[in-house]
Design brief:
mainly beta; Methylamine Dehydrogenase, Chain H; 2 domains; five-stranded mixed beta sheet; four-stranded antiparallel beta sheet; 6 helices; 14% helix
């Protein structure tokens, strides 16, 4: 038909609706294959432009830095969905009015999952057994809801789930009812960290202690709020206060509460790299080191017979007394200054360090004289995914591929299972893997081979946020949604 061969009709159709233009090109009976190809290239480019401009398509990079995930979530539409859900919940169950009086119910109960990667920051669930025979369609979903962006994990205390999100141009600390997922309260402040390679939004997981939640935004905003109500007790910006520059991928180190202090890592010079504040008043207690910060969170550990802080900076791992004095150090320099995987305590005086970007893993022995390398190996290159330890075997994601390493020798036992740059939790004799694409996989902690037990799709899209297990419930989130599943038997 002649109208199929009209180049002006073809051009106009391709501009308005590229798929139809492409169809007309290839239905043509007079154009050569070469001319069809010449028409196809600009039409495909027009189609891609339509997807970006009119359909909200965005490309997100995987942990390799290569674009892999395409989303069609329009930010404004997504924020409206969050607000609509919260408004409906408030209408159904109005929250009690806030008062100006700051009342903190002091409690010594830590909560089932009070801190980043659990009570000991080791990505291990020890509160009870988990279900190991899963239904064919996956674990039972208890609730699901839309949430704001960012890569923080979640904590659970006082019957609430706490996490930090990006909503429009504000960072938001949000509290949700653990049983139902209903939004209980939010605290927000102006701040929008943008980063094109990894993604936008806050990174650092909140911390709970004695009726308070401590939250750190990607731009350094640090607040202490009442867990029950969200009322702000004190606030400060740790970057401004310590004359520190932000990192390329933002502040990501979760605050650590130890006794009467809360430890943060602004990475300032002149002795302002590691800073301690009074957890009740926010007053500065001490500061130490001149190191540039990294992305790992500070930890409390007992090594070589001494209770101490373990901190990994951009260039080294160190042990500090609880008042900031240097006990030992070990050089740990990686490409792009990316130390983002938590250290793993192996024994009374041994610590594992792991890093990606083709770096590897080191077992170090701690003494009062310093840190001594026992072995170094490239068998486990964990970029921002903390490995877990079971019966002398280290299980983790070696640049996105699941692997097992003998801690005694550093030799790899096996490697297999392409889960991408996801996250893992140890629970009994099994490992729960949240893959980079949002699947939850149950893997047997088998030192001889990969033994995948069950799998189901829990979330959709890029998922870098560490999962948690609290009171027999598995919670997962990414940059758009959060869901809760029953994992107790």
């Amino acid at each position: 038909m002649a109208w199929r061969e009209n180049r002006w009709l073809l051009a106009g159709t391709s501009i308005i609706f590229p798929p139809l233009g492409l169809l007309l090109v290839w239905l043509s009976q007079t154009r050569s294959a070469w001319r069809k190809l010449l028409w196809t290239i600009p039409i495909v480019l027009l189609g891609a432009a339509h997807l970006f401009l009119f359909w909200g398509m965005r490309l997100q990079t995987a942990g390799t830095g290569i674009p892999r995930f395409a989303t069609f979530e329009r930010p404004e539409t997504h924020y409206q969905a969050i607000e609509k859900r919260a408004a409906e919940e408030r209408k159904a169950e109005p929250a009690p009015p806030r008062t100006e009086l700051v009342v903190v119910e002091e409690t010594t109960v830590p909560g089932p999952w009070p801190s980043y990667l659990g009570p000991n920051r080791d990505a291990t669930y020890t509160a009870g057994p988990i279900l190991t025979a899963w239904p064919e369609n996956g674990l039972t979903q208890l609730w699901r809801r839309p949430i704001g962006g960012g890569y923080a994990s979640m904590i659970v205390a006082e019957g609430k789930v706490f996490t930090i999100e990006q909503r429009r141009n504000q960072e938001v600390l949000a509290a949700y009812d653990f049983a139902t997922g209903r939004e209980a309260w939010t605290v927000s402040w102006n701040g929008f960290f943008q980063e094109s390679m990894g993604g936008d939004g806050p990174r650092a997981t909140p911390t709970y202690s004695n009726g308070r939640v401590y939250v750190l935004g990607a731009l350094g905003e640090f607040r202490c709020v009442v867990a029950a109500t969200g009322k702000v007790i004190w606030s400060k910006n740790i970057l401004r206060e310590n004359d520190a520059a932000n990192l390329q991928w933002g502040m990501a180190s979760s605050p650590l509460v130890v006794d009467d202090q809360v430890i943060v890592l602004p990475g300032g010079s002149s002795g302002n790299s590691v800073v301690s504040y009074d957890k009740r008043t926010g007053e500065r207690k001490w500061s130490a080191l001149d190191d540039k910060a990294a992305y790992t969170a500070p930890m409390l550990a007992t090594l070589a017979g001494e209770r101490q802080l373990v901190v990994v900076t951009a260039a080294r791992a160190v042990g500090l007394t609880l008042d900031g004095k240097l006990l030992w150090e070990f050089p740990w320099k990686t490409d792009y200054d990316v130390n983002a995987s938590q250290p793993v305590v192996v024994g009374a005086d041994r610590l594992l360090l792991a890093a990606g970007y083709d770096h590897g893993t080191a077992l170090i022995e701690i003494s009062r004289e310093g840190g001594r390398q026992v072995w170094f190996s490239k068998s486990m290159k964990a970029k921002f995914n903390t490995p877990v330890l079971k019966n002398g075997i280290l299980y983790g994601l070696d640049e996105g591929i699941f692997a097992a390493v003998d801690v005694a020798t550093g030799q790899r036992k096996w490697k297999g299972g392409r889960y991408g740059y996801g996250q893992l939790l140890l629970a009994g004799d099994h490992i729960v893997v949240l893959t980079e694409s949002g699947d939850v996989v149950l893997v047997k902690a088998n030192p001889e081979r990969l033994e995948e037990v069950a799998r189901f799709e829990a979330l959709s899209g890029k998922t870098w946020n560490p999962p948690i297990i609290a009171d027999g419930k598995l919670l997962v989130r990414n940059t758009t949604e959060m869901a809760c599943y029953r994992i107790a038997p």
